[in-house]
Design a protein that fits this description.
By secondary structure, the chain is an alpha/beta fold. The protein has helices spanning 5-15, 32-41, 54-57, 62-66, 87-99, 114-117, 129-143, 162-170, 197-207, 222-231, 263-281, 290-297, 304-313, 317-332; strands at 20-23, 47-48, 52-53, 78-83, 104-109, 149-154, 176-180, 212-216, 236-239.
Amino acid sequence: MIRGFWEQIYVKTKNENRPIYTLAPMADVTDIAFRTMIAKYGKPDVMWTEFVSCNGLMSAGREHLIKDLEYGEGERPIVAQLFTSDALNMEGAARLCMEMGYDGIDINMGCPVDLIGKQGAGAALIKNPELAKEIIRAAQRGVGGKIPVSVKTRLGYNKIEYKAWLKEILSCDIPVLTLHLRTKKEMSLVPAHYEIIDEISDYIKELSPETIFIINGDIKDVEHSVELYNKYKFDGVMIGRGMFGTPWLCQNINDNKNSLRSIKEKLIIMLEHTKLFEEKLSPIKSFAIMKKHYKAYVNGFEGAKELREKLFEAKDYNEVKSITNNYLDSLQE
């Protein structure tokens, strides 16, 4: 089992009596602009990229997708998340990511989106454990034992039935398992199943004592994750939606408390994020992607709804800056 950088992270967080904090891979969200902001204002222990298609990386369309794998040194340790149902493409893509300097590879076996499932990838692999193992071993061959290969998956496909599934993938000696605590069918429509964390943890430790167990689903912030850590048995948390609009979320992880920002501070950070997105990703990615970030940054204060509506109409950084500055000026009147 190749643990790589995970060994140091594991020991460090155990000594600090806190969970390992990781950033969830989210399509059109955890791009280099957002990750750069997180690395600057509140870096978790490990960063994940958005999930990237191995088939695309191994095709003529590689040049476009390579942009999704751009990262900065300040993001380390950083893990590239890949998805496919083709073992040869996984092997090649994993090798590519290793050569790009990634610290680890993670395989997406949990995405519930039908577009991914129709390719036999993501959560569809839960129904095909033999192929899932083939893909894990292909990634391990691709990196040649130089960096760790981990897996992110779910509790089951149509119902909770994790035992047979986890037994199969843990047989591949994976150093880290991230489990979204819902089934594919449940998507994100029901609360995460925290009530079975301990039984899952015991089962994982029975099968693979060295595997680091990370939970994912509905984790709001640092205080919430500490509350869970003190109640259940797991090694780390993966935060997704909780990071939206709060790149500073993990600023105080060693103090086990959340960081707060004023309205002005939030909007200044939002502007910085917008400028970075335009510099790094325009015109490759649509500026409209920033709308989901504006929805998260701009809420919970007087005039937020009106400000959001104006920001949603903005076409570039200069327009966003003008709208935001007008709002900030109005606060001082």
